[in-house]
Structures are given as structure tokens and as C-alpha cells.
Description:
Blueprint: H1 25-43, E1 50-54, H2 60-69, E2 74-79, H3 82-91, E3 97-101, E4 126-131, H4 142-153, E5 154-167, E6 173-175, E7 192-195, H5 196-205, E8 208-214, E9 223-229
Parallel strand pairs: 1-2, 1-4, 2-3, 4-5, 5-7
Antiparallel strand pairs: 5-9, 6-7, 8-9
Helix pairs in contact: 1-2, 4-5
The structure holds S-adenosylmethionine (SAM).
S-adenosylmethionine binds at residues 17-18, 54-57, 60, 78-81, 84, 102, 104, 106, 109, 132-134, 137.
Amino acid sequence: MFKKKTPLVLPPGKFRMGGAHFKDDTAFIATAVNDVKRLADYCGLTTASSLLDWGCGVGRLAVGVREHFGHIRDYHGVDVQPELISWADKNLAGPGFRFTYVDVSNERYNPDGSPERTVASDPGSVDVFYAYSVFSHMNDVDTPAYLKLIEQALSPGGRAMVTCFVEEDVAGWEENPAGYGPLDWQGRLHCTRFAREHFENHVNAARLAVDRFEYGQETDGQSLYVLRKR
Length: 230
Ligand SMILES: C[S@@+](CC[C@H](N)C(=O)[O-])C[C@H]1O[C@@H](n2cnc3c(N)ncnc32)[C@H](O)[C@@H]1O
């Protein structure tokens, strides 16, 4: 059973990242359920799956899994921000739901973290890997390295659904590009944008392949990729 029973306890607004549409309770739950349905459609997520929510924040996707499925075999949320993981662990963890804090470096969210990268999962153990608005805040050294870790983490038929800013005919990687997108980007890695070819070269080098690409429909104009092992 959940540590907190229904009605569902939702994270306070100050913890919700990723755009204005995640701040209202109804919209917050709706985006999460919608993503769980897309994970089912695009990546084969079922109640028997292991799901890694990398950069889970406060556990938005866990709310969606709970609303849509009740629970699955293993939902695992991982993040570099201890206060978010602590909230999620207290309020959303339970059978089939767990959260792990990793003290690794990200210049925006955990600048003093370790340079030793991890996605906190055993090789070949993840059926569905989800990274929403994580590569949108990542440098161009960590990105290819984490794509390799995703490839290692995926089970043989596994899929990864990730979002990021990609455009044609732009610099390979750029931080906070002026005049781009709906926001006035502030601070380190607020928006990291890739040239599409550059990002897909990283995907290829990680021995991953693109299963699906949807341009520009995600938060603040990010694009969606579904990736699989090659
Ligand atoms: C914009 S938030 C998105 C949160 C969540 N995925 C969602 O859609 O609600 C980006 C998250 O990625 C996390 N993050 C950044 N780098 C990370 C890393 N190397 N490992 C794990 N989490 C990371 C941040 O701490 C932050 O919670």
C-alpha cells in the first residue's frame, strides 16, 4: 500500500519543474497519464515492465503510473536533487514504486556532484527508459556518455523515450540560445539545444537507433525520440 492513501498527494508547486502546464493539479496529472499511455503505445510499457524514470524530479510520471495502472512491476525514479527525491520517497514510494538519489554532477541542478555518471540501474535491466526534459538541460559531454549508459541499461527489447531541443541548421550544441523558444533562458543549462544531426550522431555512437521522432510538440518546443538498441 502507499504510505499516503487516496486522495493522491501531489507535489507542491515549488517542486514542479518543466513549464507552466505542470503547475495546475489537473494538468499535472493529465500530462503524467498521457505520458504513461504514450510509453505503453510507443515503448510497450505494461504492468510487467521495469520502468526507469531518469531525472524524475518529484515523481510526476509515478503519479501517472499510479493513476493509469495502479502499479507496475518496478517504477524506479532517479534524480540528483535530494529534496525532490526525499519528497517523492515519503509520498509516492510503495510496492512497485521506488526512488533513488544520485549525487552526480549537472551544472544546473547539482553543480557540486560527482563526475562519475550513473543511471543507477543494472545492465540490461530496464524495459522502458523515460527521460523527459533531461537532455534539455545537459552539456554536450554528458549527453553522449548518458546515451551509452541508457543503451547498457536497456533490456534486449527495451525502448527509451526521451525529449530534447533539436533543430535543423543550428550549431551542434548551444546553451541558452537567444531568441529561441518561449522563455528568456536564465542560468546554466536552462535550455540546451542540439542540431538534429549532432544529437542523432550521439544516438548512433551509443549503439542506439531512432524508432520514432516527433518534432517540437513537447514542453517549450522540445522534440520526442523513441530509441532502441541496435
Ligand atoms: C526539467 S526537470 C524534469 C523533471 C521530470 N522528468 C518531469 O518531466 O517532470 C529535469 C530533471 O532532471 C534532473 N537531472 C539532471 N541531470 C541529471 C542526472 N545526471 N541524473 C539524474 N537526474 C538528473 C534534474 O534534477 C531535474 O529534476
